């Protein structure tokens, strides 16, 4: 690949990287905006209720958590289990929570789909441009080969003409010599 082609490819890669960074920045901005609109705490969140003093020490230890949860914990677990119809209908990302507050998952999913679609379209467009550049570079190389062949043919013709000119000069000199010898 020529230096010019490499430079174009590098520019293409740089543009692609910048667009990806812009898309990620837009997604982060949207996520930050959405996270500022915090939702009310979920009523079904489990509430730890410690029954015995031994449960307090067990809940505080790193090895195990033996605290007994509120009765809503079981119901919430059932709703979120993999076998529950409610869980199967909702996307897995809908049950992830962020530390800065919950992000409206449908907004996040739509945003990511939009970003991915735009990135894919830009990638396809850039790929088409790269393919066109490669095709034009191949064509240019073929033209260079043809041009080199024509230049070689031209050089051969120039050599032939020069040789013929030398022959003509020699013949003219010979004719002049013969004419001069006939005069004497």
Automatic annotation (TrEMBL):
Basic and acidic residues compositional bias, start-end: 77-90, 138-157
Biased segments, Low complexity type: 25-34, 55-67
Biased composition (Basic residues): 1-19
Region of interest (Disordered), residue spans: 1-102, 138-158
Protein name as catalogued: Uncharacterized protein
């Amino acid at each position: 690949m020529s230096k010019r082609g490499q430079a174009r490819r590098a520019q293409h890669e740089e543009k692609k990287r910048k667009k990806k960074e812009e898309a990620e920045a837009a997604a982060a901005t949207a996520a930050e905006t959405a996270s500022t609109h915090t939702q009310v705490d979920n009523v079904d969140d489990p509430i730890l209720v410690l029954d015995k003093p031994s449960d307090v020490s067990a809940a505080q230890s790193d090895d195990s958590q033996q605290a007994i949860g509120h009765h809503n914990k079981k119901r919430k677990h059932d709703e979120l289990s993999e076998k529950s119809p409610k869980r199967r209908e909702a996307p897995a990302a809908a049950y992830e929570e962020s530390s800065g507050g919950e992000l409206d998952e449908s907004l996040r999913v739509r945003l990511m789909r939009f970003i991915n679609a735009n990135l894919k379209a830009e990638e396809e467009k850039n790929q088409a441009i790269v393919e066109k550049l490669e095709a034009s570079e191949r064509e240019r190389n073929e033209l260079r080969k043809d041009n080199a062949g024509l230049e070689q043919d031209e050089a051969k013709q120039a050599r032939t003409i020069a040789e013929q000119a030398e022959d003509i000069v020699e013949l003219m000199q010979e004719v002049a010599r013969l004419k001069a010898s006939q005069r004497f």
